[in-house]
Amino acid sequence: MPWRNRRAMVGVDTAIILIAFVLVAAAVAFVVLDMGMTSAQKAKQTMEGGLQQASTALQVDGDVMAYVNTSGAVQVIYIPLGVTPGTGYVSFAKNLLSVSVIAGNMSYANIYNGVAGVITNQNLTAIANKLGGSGAVAEVYFIHGNITPFVLGPYGQALLVIHLPYGLPAYKSFTVTISPSIGGAITVSRIIPPNNITNTVIDLG
Question: How far apart are CA 59 and CA 82, in angstroms?
C-alpha cells in the first residue's frame, strides 16, 4: 500500500478516536450536569422546608388579656391569634396543636383541649366562669374566619383561653408556648401588674 494511503488511514483512525473521546466527554459532562441540577433541586427543597418550619404559622393578633379572680390574682389568660400572612390555613385540632405554660414556679405541658366553639359575643368574664374549677387547660374559640370547625383561614382570628389552677399574683410572670402542626412555635410572655381589681378583665398588652 502506498505511504500516502497509509497516512490517510491513520488520519481516519485518529479522527474516529477523537470523536469517541468527544462523545464520552459529552456523556460524562451531561451526567455531571444532571447530578448538579438534581442536587440543586434537592437543596432548594430542603431550604424551603427549613424555612417553612422556622417561620411561625400563627401570630399574636391583638392585646393579651387576663381575668382577675376574687383573690386579686390572674386565673385566666386570653391570647388573640391570627394566621401569619402567607401561611394559608392552620388547624386547631386537638392532635395538631400543643400549648404549654410556665406560670410562676409551675409548668404545665401540652394542656390544649381543642376547639370549644365560636364566640358570638366576646364576654371574657363568662368564658372565665365557664372554666372555673378546671385545672390547667387551654381551649380555642374562633372569632371569625374559620373555614371548618377546626381550621382557621387567612385573616381569621381565634382566641386562646388558658385557665390556671393557681392564680398568679402581681409581679409574677407567665410564658405560653404555642406549637402548631406547621411552622415554628410562638411564645408569649407577660408580667402581672399590681393593684388589680377583682373579678375583672385586665389588659396585659
Answer: 5
Which grid cell sits at 138? 387551654
> Distance of CA 130 to CAs 7, 55, 65, 80, 159, Å?
103, 34, 17, 18, 15
Is the model's pTM score more than 0.90? no
Q: What is the pLDDT of residue 119?
A: 87
Any residues with CB less than 8 A from the CB of 88 and at least 6 apart, and which? 153, 154
Distance CA 153, CA 187 (A): 21
Question: Cell numbers 411561625 label which residue?
Answer: 56
Nearest to 69 by CA among 202, 198, 205, 204: 198
Tell me the one-letter amino acid at 139: E
- Cβ distance 181 to 96 under 8 Å? yes
Gap between the Cα atoms of 145 and 159, Å rounded:
12
CA angle 53, 164, 82 (to 5 degrees): 35
Residue 54, pLDDT > 80, answer: no
* Alpha carbon distance 200, 78 (integer Å): 13
